[in-house]
Input
Amino acid sequence: MAEADRMDEVDVHPGVHRATETDETQVLRALYGEPDAGGIFRGPDENGEEGRA
Output
């Protein structure tokens, strides 16, 4: 059986290409703010200051 013969078994929903989950970068920015120069999301430490390495 060829792949083309099995097309009725695949998801052909018009929105199949859309993401179903929130982008990870959006979630990290919401939790920790902007990343540092190295691209690490650190967020504030227990003193409320920007996190350090």
